[in-house]
Structures are given as structure tokens and as C-alpha cells.
Specification:
By secondary structure, the protein is α+β, with helices and mostly antiparallel strands. It has three helices and five strands. One of its GO terms (cellular component) is cytosol.
């Protein structure tokens, strides 16, 4: 599902809301999640999952084509861990 499909689905389920308002709401939610992760915070949506940032230390890697050693800088990567309800839904448990 793409962001535009999500917006269309929410607007369809909530006919009392204008599509432009739904688009603003969805964009605000995504922006707030991104801002929280950029600050190093953790975002938890109960039953769905938790977004956090994993920090990876600098290391020495290897170029697979040439075999030459290459230094890889430290970096931060977003990480998502599914919630219990989502895992159960995906594994044939009770539906939400």
C-alpha cells in the first residue's frame, strides 16, 4: 500500500472528512515519526509496533569486487519491531 492509497482508504472510511484534511493528517503523522527518530526518540504504536534508531559503529569493510579494504563510517539506521497483535495477525491468529 502506498501513501496515496492509504489516504484514499482513510478518506473512504471517513466520508465526513475532506481528502485534503486526511492527506494533511497522514503527512503530519509521518513527519512526526521521522522527527522523533531524527531526535533519537523511540515511537511506539501499541499493537502495531515500535520504530527506533539503531546505531552502527564505524568498521573496516571490504570491496567485494576488488577485495580492497574500505573504511565504513558510523551510521544510524531506522529499525521497526512489530507489535504482538500485528505478529499474531500475520501468523494466522485473531484478526484486529
Amino acid at each position: 500500500m502506498t501513501k496515496s492509497e492509504l489516504i484514499a482508504r482513510i478518506a473512504e472510511l471517513n466520508p465526513h472528512l475532506y481528502q485534503r484534511d486526511v492527506e494533511r493528517i497522514v503527512s503530519t503523522i509521518f513527519d512526526e515519526i521521522a522527527s522523533a527518530l531524527a531526535r533519537g526518540d523511540r515511537v511506539e504504536l501499541r499493537g502495531f509496533g515500535a520504530f527506533s534508531v539503531k546505531h552502527r559503529d564505524a568498521r573496516v569493510g571490504r570491496n567485494p569486487r576488488t577485495g580492497e579494504t574500505v573504511s565504513v563510517d558510523a551510521k544510524a539506521a531506522p529499525y521497526f519491531k512489530t507489535g504482538k497483535q500485528l505478529r499474531e495477525l500475520l501468523n494466522g491468529g485473531e484478526s484486529v
